[in-house]
Design brief:
Layout lengths: L22 E2 L2 E5 L9 E4 L1 H15 L7 H15 L5 E3 L2 E5 L2 E8 L2 E3 L16 E4 L20 H13 L4 E5 L5 E4 L3 E6 L2 E4 L10 H9 L7 E3 L4 H5 L3 E6 L3 E4 L2 E2 L2 E2 L7 H14 L10 E3 L1
Parallel strand pairs: 8-9, 8-16, 12-13
Antiparallel strand pairs: 1-5, 2-3, 2-4, 3-18, 4-7, 5-6, 9-10, 11-12, 11-14, 14-15, 16-17
Length: about 300
């Protein structure tokens, strides 16, 4: 925090700090060779994530008191200080000191997490029932959905709370035009007639690092990718649907509004994508080794 590796209990700020004005990133480091094992860690998509962090800071008018190289050193120092040898979550957070936009706090908390990925991982196949939320995804003339700002996640919290109250696991947003946007914490992809389809950035989605990587590597598996608007009815008619994001990784969805996708769950294309993504994260696909930064 602010240049030093310190115990979590000492990472304190005043109750008067405007943390809600802050931005953050969600980044993961995975174990080399096998994401379900222990060993050497590689940070996935560091350049894309740190570039987005700086773009979010610019959009929100926040000062970045450290360089991208200094932040990478902070990440490595914190992971090493904790002695992590399993998959690790990294969440750089930035917010203005006492409301002054020209000076910012920067803290990089890290913790272990359990992945959905890896062959024969039982977590991957758990059923997940979604609903279309009555809350619309915030639009860019209200808040910048493309930036990873804490304020945007109040929108997500309302939709997720509604979904749980109605007996579902999570929710899908529509944008203000009525087209499919994203879920409460990850981007959405659907499969129809062998094609992977995902909404455009203009559908009020986050400019997701993981989504960008998926769009790049999915054609390797023989499935074309279309980036275009998706109607609610077309979502219902999909053969498969899944979330993609740092937190969500590749999360299959069983149904939306109790309308099930396809005859097989998880769907075959979703499963193939998840397995390939797991291999990429573990450093087993030479073509995408440049997405990994050794700790």
């Amino acid at each position: 925090m602010n240049g030093k590796v310190i115990p979590t209990g000492e990472a304190l700020v005043s109750a008067m700090e405007p943390i809600y004005l802050g931005i953050f990133e969600g980044i993961k480091a995975y174990v080399e060779g096998d994401v379900l094992s222990e060993g050497k860690l590689n940070v996935f998509g560091w350049k894309q994530h740190v570039d987005r962090l700086f773009r979010s800071a610019e959009v929100d008018g926040l000062a970045m008191p450290y360089s991208k190289e200094e932040l990478m050193r902070a990440v490595k120092d914190t992971i090493k200080a904790n002695g992590y040898k399993r998959n690790t979550y990294i969440q750089p957070r930035v917010w203005p000191k006492a409301g002054r936009q020209e000076d910012s706090h920067v803290v990089v908390p890290t913790w272990g997490f359990e992945t959905l990925l890896g062959r024969d991982n039982p977590l991957f196949g758990e059923e997940r029932r979604f609903m279309v939320s009555s809350w619309r995804r915030l639009s860019s003339d209200a808040l910048p959905p493309q930036a990873k700002s804490w304020a945007n996640y109040a929108n997500s919290a309302l939709a997720r709370r509604e979904a749980v109250r109605c007996g579902y696991d999570n929710a899908v947003f529509l944008d203000r035009r009525g087209f499919v946007s994203e879920s409460t914490g990850a981007c959405l992809m659907t499969v129809r007639d062998g094609k992977v389809i995902t909404p455009p950035v203009t559908a009020s989605i986050l400019e997701s690092v993981t989504r960008g990587c998926f769009i790049e590597f999915i054609p390797d598996l023989g499935a074309p990718v279309e980036v275009r608007d998706i109607t609610r009815v077309e979502l219902y008619a999909s053969d498969e649907a899944f979330l993609c994001g740092t937190g969500g990784e590749c999360t299959p969805i069983t149904s939306v509004d109790d309308i099930k996708f396809g005859d097989q769950y998880p769907g075959p294309i979703t499963t193939k994508i998840a397995e390939y993504y797991s291999d990429i994260l573990a450093g087993n696909v030479a073509k995408y080794r440049h997405w990994l930064t050794p700790v």
